[in-house]
Each structure stands twice: as structure tokens, then as C-alpha cells.
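Shape matters. As here.
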Amino acid sequence: MSVTVSIPTPLRSFTGGRDAVPVAGATVGEVLDGLLAAHGGLRRHLVQDDGKLRNFVNLYLNDTDIRQLESTATAVSAGDVLTIVPSIAGGRPATETDLPKLSHAEVLRYSRHLLLPEVGLEGQRKLKAARVLTIGAGGLGSPLTLYLAAAGVGTIGIVDFDAVDLTNLQRQVVHGTSSLGRPKLDSARERLLDLNPNVNVIGHDTRLTSENALEILRDYDIVVDGTDNFPTRYLVNDACVLLGKPNVYGSIFRFEGQASVFYAKEGPCYRCLYSEPPPPGLVPSCAEGGVLGVLPGIIGCLQAMETIKWILGAGDSLVGRLVLFDALKLRFRELKLRKDPNCPICGDHPTIHELIDYQAFCGIGAEPEYAGPEISVEEFQRERAVNGAELVLLDVREPHEWEIAHIEGARLIPLSQLPDRLNELDGHAEIVTQCHHGSRSMKALEILRGAGFGKVRSLAGGIDAWAERVEPGMARY
């Protein structure tokens, strides 16, 4: 039978970077022998010359110290987890030689770190040895990667497939005006290496999916979630739980942010906090709802801080705690989180053992089809020129968006008010709904169709497409 041996961070260099190794055996002793036979470099760190366990190493079978059982003679069963726990607190390496050396230039660069007893020379070498993966090079990923690079984290992986857009620069400070149109990975890599040429920046130019997530995450020690959508957030969580990796979480919206560390081996995971996602469209994205530019800087810096603390083994991590930040009130709150025994992936009886279809889980693709066609901005312009008096352009954005830019002759009724203001519209009129990019206007179309309005279409691409292709002088946001 095979059990899983959990390898602590200081010893992973002897298992090819893996944090968990399957080993066959009927007892703890047989499993240990099999582990040492496959990974001989572990021998001097775990056992003495006579084969007995070293006094500074403990073994836990599931949640119980084997010294409270039958020691190495304890029988094991398929699915058991044998955890190696070095007795040195903070995850310190078994020997100093396991950590990379610092050059004289690096000692000077990190001198303010070295003066801190909680960091020191050994802590800085831990940072250099660490491998951190960030999901996204956007609002959260920008400050996060900048401070990880500045701190000397040796390997920084970035997953992103987007290009730099002008609307990004209000908050995505790792990019600049000169990077417009370039892949974010290239822009971020160039900036990080300029900040600290000693770090290794690995780009993963792809969308994270159930097919590639485990392969990508497997090679890193810590995963930092800088995503902006629910399918990827649940995907990152589940992959981290299955791989036994910490997930440094952050999220932002308008003036509020959240941060925590999810680590199923010691506390709750993201599913314990939010067992299911909101229905599609209920929680708007930053592109629809906006975000204060400095907010991701604050939350991203909290994520960087938690990541660095985790690497150093210093302080109290946010495992089991959720930090809420309100920028308008400049107030932090802390909530305690508990592991959900019924959690489908990290609870007492998990039902999720592999990555699933997260688009379907979050209801994307399962929304009701809208009973009406879209109309392109060019086609709308032509129709308006012929029978403009017969067309009603219904803008369903918010008033503050209307102030930025609006199409001449449009009528403003925000989407949230539309169900209560249907009586203001002519049921026989030909209506074209319009918003920023087209998502809200399709929801408005559905509301109008459901209320009996028969001649309704949605402006494809919204006012942004109009500004790009019809009225280039219009302000875009």
C-alpha cells in the first residue's frame, strides 16, 4: 500500500522540490526506508548512523506523533499521510549549506534586512532560495512582485496572458506608458529585473486552467492569488489544497479589500470561507464597478508581507484570519476563520479529489440566453441616420459614468433602477440598450424582454466600442 510522505520546505531540495512523495510500505519504518532508498540525500538529516531517527526530527502519522503510537512499528493504511516535522521552529533548514550564498553585492543590497534579527543573513538566504508564484501581473500582482523582487525572493513566477492597456496604469504600477500594447509578462519581467537583477523571473504566458494548474503550481513553494475572477480563484484554491501549498489571498473592489492566507494543512481554505461563488453578474468586476488606484497597492503589499513572513518563518501568519480594509474609513478589521468540517476539498470527508470545471462551477456559460440580437455600433449609426426619431438609445450605466462620456441623444436609466422605471418607456418603441462594454446592456435587454418589450437590441461593445470605432474623440475609461 502507498502512503503520502509530506516533506517540509528545508528538505525539499532532496526530493526534487516536491512537497509530498508517495511511498509504499506496511509500517512507518518500511515507509521511511523506502523514502530514504529513493531520496538518499535525506538520510543524514533524518536518521543516525545506526538507523534510528534523529532526536530533532518528529514523524506524525496523520495528526498523531508516532511516539504516541508504536513508533516506527506503527502500521499504516492506504491514504495515510506521514509528515516530517523538524523540531527547529520556523522551518529553518537542517544545515546552513542547504541555502544559497549571498554575494558581497547582495549583502550590501539587502543590508537593511540583515540588520533585522528576524531576518539576518540566514533569513535573506531563505528568501533567495524561495520560489513564489503570483497569479496575475495586474493590480495586486504589480506591488506584490515589485516588493518580492526588492526583498530578494530568488525565483518569482508570474502567470498572465494579457497585454498592457492604458486603463491599467491607474493602479498597475509595475507597468508604464512605454509598455502600452506589450504583454504584461514582458513588461513586468523588464521592470523587476531592473529593480533587482539577482532574481529569476519565470513567465507563464497562459490562462490558468484545470489542465495546467497542477503542473505550473507544483514547482513553487508559495502561491499568491492576484486574480480578478471567481473561476480562477476557486481553481487556485483547489490546486493549492491538492498540492499542500499555502495560498496568499487578496481581493479588491472599489474602496474595500480583503487579505488572508489559506493553508489547508493548518487552517481553512477559501472554500471554507465562501463555499460557493455568487451568481454570474451579481458582483461586478473592477472594469464595471471601478477601483481606487491605491487600494491594490495596499492589499498587494499585505500579500507581499505575508509571503515574506512565511518564507522567513517569522511572526504570526494570516492563516485562520481574514483582514478587511475600508479605504474610505481607513479602518482595518480582523475576523477569525474556522475550518469547515464539511468543506468538499479540505473537510473531514472531501469529495473533490481533482480539479473540476470551474467555469461551470461558477455558472459561467450556464446563464439564460438573452432573447434578442446585438447590434454593432456601425449598424446602429447607419440605422440612426435613417430613422433616428424611431430609435431609443437606453444607457443603463451609472450617473458618474454618464458624466465621463455619453452618446448624444441617449437616455439614462441605470440598470439597478430599470425594473422600477419601465413605465417611463414606450412599450412599442424600438430600443437599443447600451452600457460600458455590453454586459449590463444584455441584462437590461433580458429585463425589457421579460416585461413584454418586443423590439429590443443591445449595442455590442457598448460605449467603449462606439468611442473606438465611431467617435474617436470621445473619452474612454
